[in-house]
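Exam revision sheet. Question 4 asks you to relate a sequence to its structure. Input first:
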Amino acid sequence: MESPKPRFDVVGQLGSLRRYARSLTRNETDAEDLVHDTLVRAYERRSHFRDGGNLKGWLLSILHNGFIDSKRSSQSEARRRDALAVNAETVLQPPQEHSMRLMEVRDAFFSLPEEQRAALHLVAIEGLSYEEAAATLGIPIGTLMSRIGRARATLRSLEAEQPGKAAHLKIVGGRDE
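Answer key, structure tokens:
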């Protein structure tokens, strides 16, 4: 007696499914994933398969539609990533780096000798003219300019000693000679 042929025998279709999946994906691993997804979908929708229908054609159709859906999804994801990258470029850097940089500059400033620090502070931070700063300190303007010049040179040399960091100290107030 001949046993009845199973209605939903996909094992005989695996070769065709794998070949078509490799043809679409051009990648063995992606092809196996696609075949797996196809078999899962086919099993979930097995009630939609008509008795006497073309099982091979039905399975290949599910595989093809799964591939198209996957491709559309990856394209959509790529567009979202690109849009996110554009938005990410407008995001501010974390404040920790800025805070660390300010601490470095502050430490470098405080490492200056007192007379250089005072002269630079009055001109660069308080915005006094050379004449006003010299009067405030009770020193000749030439001495003030000399102290500011030495302070700036010291800060630049400290900046240059840090490998991999570009000079970020900006000259403020007066001329840099």
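Marking note for examiners. The chain has a mean pLDDT of 83.
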